Amino acid sequence: MSRDSSLAQPSVLAAPALLLMAVACGLCAGGNYFNQALLHSIALHFGVDDAAAGLSVTLAQVAYAVGLLFITPLGDKFERRRMAVVLMLLAGVGHAMVGWSSSFAMFMAGTLIAGLFSVASQVLVPMAAALAAPGHAGRNVGLVLSGLLVGILLSRSVAGGLSTLGGWNLVYQVTAITMVLMAVSIRHWLPTSRHAQPMPYVQVLRSMGGLLRTQPALRLRTTASALAFASVSVMFATMALVLSSAPLQLSDMQIGLVALAGVTGALIANVAGSWADKGKDRTLLRAGAVALLLSWLPLWWGQTSVAWFVVGVLVMDLGLQAINVTNQSSIASLLPEARSRMNAVYMTGYFAGASAGSALGVWAWNLAGWQGACSIGAGLAALAALSVWRGVRWAKRQQRSSNIQAA
Q: Most CB atoms closer than 10 Å: which of 61, 188, 192, 361?
């Protein structure tokens, strides 16, 4: 597809374009997770304690949530391809600051900038839905999210591997350069995509509050996903700390390989998107909630066993992605005229949950070690399960009501 495509939207995005979007999303989102496998090395490099280094995980997620709230809604105002390119270039600047940081303050500033502008991925997700054929929005979203999820999960392994080769900062240096190359590719190969009736920025932000008030499905799905991601973030914020400690004492590369177990969760993204298109999302949501809750048992045992830790990561990520992809695919189809804003509300809540989970995880680790982190994580998983069940019951009532009115 030529970069000179007109504003008239094509009915279907070509497979190569979807693949490019998936890779770009993976690169943007994955960059926020490099530090999770490198916390011990970062702490040693800058002469800070593990808890201080762990705050970089929370900072990245808070910055991402702020970007989701204030930047991604502009996808309903500006041309989306150009917006994604600019954001990726700015995220590359943040990664360069981290990769060549000379102080812990510069490291944290770069982490903030990279996290804030990596929301380019969440400009591309609703763009994939907008350029989908009727009835295929879930499929497109699922495919692009597969790339995003693989990027997040591979990020820890890539970070660990490059840390072994050239130090913890090598992965950030490589990412800064790759981000520029990807932005150029996006500019060249993707079609333009613009909202039919662009809105003033103030109106865009104000309307997001209205969407929360008037769309109960948005509130319910956002709450469930935020709690689920909070539970998972407890684990990832403390994973490097427990695995690098006695008795396991794993290296950065080994910690990254353990995190790689979660890549199987990306396999469910396409299934979840297709099921959302077919109205089978409730079964997947319930299964995801159960898997997320049960995953904390093998993780509890994982303090002394890498095998159990791997099992816990695998089951946990399957559960999270079943919940997230199903919910995000469904939200993308609720109000086509407000896709970017709906996605911004959802993802802001999602990563606000992640930020809270990371902070709670570090707090619990400092208070009671790995057992404390597992207790907090399991409690959040239980709340997520309750929220999922509440949302499913509400959806059933709405469907019965609609059937009665139709009759």
A: 361
pTM for the full model?
Answer: 0.74
Provide block-wise average pLDDT over 10 residues at a time, the chain (407 residues). 41 77 93 88 92 87 88 86 96 97 96 96 84 69 80 83 92 97 94 77 84 90 95 91 88 79 67 68 89 96 93 91 84 76 86 88 93 96 96 84 68
